[in-house]
Design a protein that fits this description.
Chain lengths: 114, 112
């Protein structure tokens, strides 16, 4: 089955620790995205990547970092510089050319910083 | 710039009621429009979409029509069920890039 997987579903970390969230897709999609969602809020774009080894900052990139070494993988690191990292993190992907232009989402990772 | 405005929630309805969730947008060119649904604790799923003016997207009894003259993409369902309780997001994809512009989401609560 094709889709997007995010792991883990729940993640707990102590304040001041870096943590990496995993996102993998087997849809052969070109672009991948990371969003942050706070309770009762909409989605805010953190980073996105349209091609391997290239990525761009979204609206709230401060305190986050990403890499895109493989087409199917787009891990997000939440660094200690992120002032309020507790949130629900969603990864998405889309085909850029000749596709249906919709974004497909993973199940999300809920990060809680203690 | 591009933007999406949704009606604020929560919207509370009784089962079998008629549903409308308003969505209006501001955009240049010819954007595509989407409705996504998010069930509690889950990621988002595409509910329906429309890629050009006067297109009607439909899925699972939900419908929305792309109205360029009123810059709207309102979500409707004739008879809601308890299982429709979720958060619904309206989104716009500009014709100039691949970044979705999101509405704030509308929480829908259906009471039996």
């Amino acid at each position: 089955d094709g889709g997007i997987t995010q792991s883990p579903k729940y993640l707990f970390r102590k304040e001041g620790q870096n943590v990496t969230l995993s996102c993998e897709q087997n849809l052969n999609h070109d672009a991948m995205y990371w969003y942050r969602q706070d309770p009762g809020q909409g989605l805010r774009l953190i980073y996105y990547s349209q091609i391997v080894n290239d990525f761009q900052k979204g609206d709230i990139a401060e305190g986050y970092s990403v890499s895109r070494e493989k087409k199917e993988s787009f891990p997000l690191t939440v660094t200690s510089a992120q002032k309020n990292p507790t949130a629900f993190y969603l990864c998405a992907s889309t085909r850029l050319a000749g596709g249906s232009n919709e974004q497909f989402f993973g199940p999300g990772t809920r990060l809680t910083v203690l | 710039g591009n933007s999406v405005t949704q009606m604020e929630g929560p919207v509370t309805l009784s089962e079998e009621a008629f549903l409308t969730i308003n969505c209006t947008y501001t955009a240049t060119g010819y954007p595509s429009l989407f409705w996504y649904v998010q069930y509690p604790g889950e990621g988002l799923q595409l509910l329906l979409k429309a890629t050009k003016a006067d297109d009607k997207g439909s899925n699972k009894g939900f419908e929305a029509t792309y109205r360029k003259e009123t810059t709207s993409f309102h979500l409707e369902k004739g008879s809601v069920q308890v299982s429709d309780s979720a958060v619904y997001f309206c989104a716009l994809l500009p014709d100039s890039n691949y970044q979705l512009i999101w509405g704030a989401g509308t929480k829908l609560i259906i009471k039996p």
